[in-house]
Amino acid sequence: MKGYSILAPVYDxxxxxxxxxxxxxxxxxxxxxYGKEKPASVLDLACxxxxxxxxxxxxxxxxxxxxxSDEMLAEADRKAREEGxxxxxxxxxxxxxxxxxxxxxxxxxxxxxINHLTSRxxxxxxxxxxxxxxxxxxxxxxxxNTPFKFRTVYAxxxxxxxxxxxxxxxxxRLSKKGDLADFYLTxxxxxxxxxxxxxxxxxxxxxxxxxxxxALGRAGMALVNVSTDHAFHPVxxxxxxxxxxxxxxx
Length: 250
Description:
The chain is α/β, with parallel strands linked by helices. It is 32% helix and 34% strand. The termini are far apart.
C-alpha cells in the first residue's frame, strides 16, 4: 500500500489533531460497558505508526500492533523504544491473513482501517481472524467512515494538509455508485532545505451498517453498540464516523 509507505515519516504530524487519549478513554469505557472483565492483552489491528498502540500500552495493556506497511511499523517501533515501551510486539501482516502466537482478550482498529477492506471476501477474512484470535467474551472495537462521509466530505474533493516542513496534497475520486473512494496522495517533505516529493494512492470502501452486522454474524460475533461519538450518542443520517463494538459469545 504505497500511500501509507510514503506517509509513514510524516503521518503523525499530519494527524496531530486526533485525540488518541480521548479515544482510548472511549475504548476503555467500551471494555467496562460490554466486556466481562478488563482485558489484559489487546491487538491493535492496522496500527499504523502506533499512536493508539502506545496510548493503550501506557495504560498497562499488553499490546500487539499489526500493520501491512513496514515503514509505518518502523515508526511505531522507534517511538515505542524512545518511550521505554520496547516490550510491545509489532508484527508485519495483512488484516485478511495475519497470524498471532496466541489469543487476545480485545482487538481494536482505529482511524477507518476496516474501510480499507474493499471486498466482501476481505471483510469476511478479517472478521473471521479477529474472532479466531479473540477469547470467549472478547471485544472488537473499531470505527468506519460512513457512506454519508464518502458522499459529502470525500466525494471528488481535493485537500491540502500542512505542517512545518511537510505538505500533503490529497485528491479524492468517488466511484459512480458512491461506495469506493480512491485517494491520490502527493507528499512534499523538506530535508536539508530541499523539498522531496513522493506519490501514492489508497482506496477505501463505504460499508453499510447492515453489511457490517451481517459480516460480524458470519464470523460468529455480535454487534453490541454503534455510536456517533465517544459519548455513546446514537447515530444519525449525517454521522461521518461510526464507532462500533462487537463481542464474541462466551
